[in-house]
Specification:
Number of helices of chain B: 3
Structural class of chain B: alpha/beta
Largest sheet of chain B: 6 strands, mixed
Radius of gyration of chain A: 15 Å
Shape of chain B: globular
Radius of gyration of chain B: 13 Å
Oligomer: heterodimer
Number of helices of chain A: 5
Order of helices and strands of chain B: EEEHEHEHE
Distance between the termini of chain B: 25 Å
Largest interface: A-B, 29 and 25 residues
Strand content of chain A: 15-25%
Largest sheet of chain A: 5 strands, antiparallel
Strand order of the largest sheet of chain A: 1-2-3-5-4
Order of helices and strands of chain A: EHHEEHHHEE
Number of strands of chain B: 6
Helix content of chain B: 25-40%
Helix content of chain A: 40-55%
Chain lengths: 155, 126
């Protein structure tokens, strides 16, 4: 991929109250970088979902988000990284494999139905929502020390 | 007060009003649902609406999201949970959820129609 024309990098301690301003900031950044409000809204929603997961399930005080814009091709790449527990990292891997297989809408509906019956307080809807609603390529990388990075590429 | 005697609720950045309309009920959402656990607010509210709709045989409820700027997936889960209650009702107790959405808000265009797939016939997007 060529060098991005613009990027932002946000690093914050896992506090819920910072997600909303980060979402608005990312939304404005993309709207300016690409002059595409619909794409800005979609990616802001997607990164917000990833940040929520990182804050909710993060095992340390470090959530890291990078958004890169490629205006010539209209591509946006956004990634969110956090440190998870070994159990949390394994759960993300299993969820990712389940959601990425099959049709995006069917996976989203199945996940919604499952979420409605969950009693553990989790929704586990974010990845399925991102995949279906943004049409993004979604990639997962988990390092041996359980640093979890989810990257979305929206064309 | 509305026909189900349900009080409006407000928490963080969201206000939810419940008002009567000509034939049914309207639940109006204004603001953002982006708190960590919206089920604390939404689950009891949707349960009250559901019980009231069934008890008073109200034919439909409008879920008016037109002034809702953001809804996170935990909020979607709470709405899905409400919709799934309709699948359990016998035919003579069923009611319909009519979703009013704002085409100028991107997430509403992509998120809300998916809710119609949960329980066939239970939800209509207007």
């Amino acid at each position: 991929m060529p060098k991005p024309d613009g990027y932002i990098e946000i690093r914050f301690g896992p506090r819920w109250k910072y997600i909303s301003p980060a979402r608005v900031f990312i939304q404005n950044f993309i709207a300016i970088a690409l002059s595409d409000q619909t794409k800005a809204d979609s990616i802001a929603m997607a990164t917000s979902e990833l940040l929520e997961n990182a804050v909710k399930y993060g095992a340390s005080e470090d959530t890291h988000c990078i958004v890169q814009a490629y205006p010539e091709t209209g591509v946006i790449e956004a990634s969110v990284t956090n440190h998870a527990s070994a159990k949390g990292a394994q759960e993300v891997k299993e969820l990712y494999e389940r959601i990425m297989s099959g049709d995006p809408l069917e996976a989203y509906i199945a996940q919604m139905r499952e979420a409605a019956t969950r009693t553990d307080g989790k929704s586990q809807l974010g990845l399925a929502r991102i995949r279906y609603e943004t049409g993004a390529d979604v990639k997962l990388d988990v390092t041996p020390d359980n640093r979890v990075t989810i990257t979305i590429i929206v064309k | 007060m509305n026909k189900l005697n349900i009080e409006p609720v407000q928490q963080d950045k969201i206000k939810i009003d419940i008002v009567d309309n000509a034939e049914g009920l309207t639940t109006k959402f204004v603001g953002d649902i982006d708190m960590e656990d919206p089920s604390i607010l939404l689950d009891p509210l949707f349960e009250k609406i559901h019980q009231g709709m069934v008890a008073k045989k109200v034919p439909f409820v409008v879920a008016d999201f037109q002034a809702l700027n953001f809804l996170n997936s935990s909020g979607i889960k709470a709405i899905a949970k409400w919709i799934m209650k309709l699948a359990m009702l016998p035919p003579d107790q069923k009611y319909q959820i009519r979703i009013a959405h704002n085409k100028a808000i991107t997430w509403q265009v992509t998120s809300l129609p998916t809710l119609t797939f949960l329980v066939p016939g239970a939800v209509k997007v207007e």
